[in-house]
Amino acid sequence: MGKQHAPGFLKIVQDAKTRVRECTVADVQARLATGDRFTFVDVREESEYAAGHIPGAIHIGKGVIERDIEAKVPDPTTPLVLYCGGGFRSALAGDAIQKMGYTYVISMDGGWRDWTGKGLPVEK
Fold first, then answer.
1. pLDDT tens for each residue of 30-80
2. Cα–Cα distance for residue pair 53/60, rounded to 1 Å
């Protein structure tokens, strides 16, 4: 069972999700299988990323994404799939960078927990 989140946090996540496109881990797998190209962005904390992440993912923590996204992904039309532990922080981060002009932003609902739960590849 997932972590119990505070009502105020859930409220802002639900608001962000009204503006951010979402996909599932299965959707991402299907895109990868067809050769679709996009950049994975892991928005979890640095310690979470260091413990394991999706192969090829770049790390830009949710707390600094607005500051660092333009240096790491200068083209705002780059297709991005953001993920976190379960899909809440990635929705918030996606909402923020869309406000900055990033146009192809998707939050992976289920995030790291669903990815690892399906036994998909990880790297450290």
1. 999 999 999 999 999 999 999 999 999 999 999 999 999 999 999 999 999
2. 12
- How many domains, in total, are found in the chain? 1
Cβ atoms 58, 82 nearer than 8 A: no
For residues 83 and 8, is the Cβ–Cβ distance under 8 A?
no
Q: Please tell me the distance from the alpha carbon of residue 96 to that of residue 20, in angstroms, as a whole number.
A: 10
Q: What is the CATH number of the domain that holds 111?
A: 3.40.250.10
pTM: 0.94
Residue 91: partners with Cβ closer than 8 Å, 6 or more residues away: 13, 16, 17, 20, 22, 107
Residues, the chain = 124
| Tokens standing for residue 64 | 């600094």
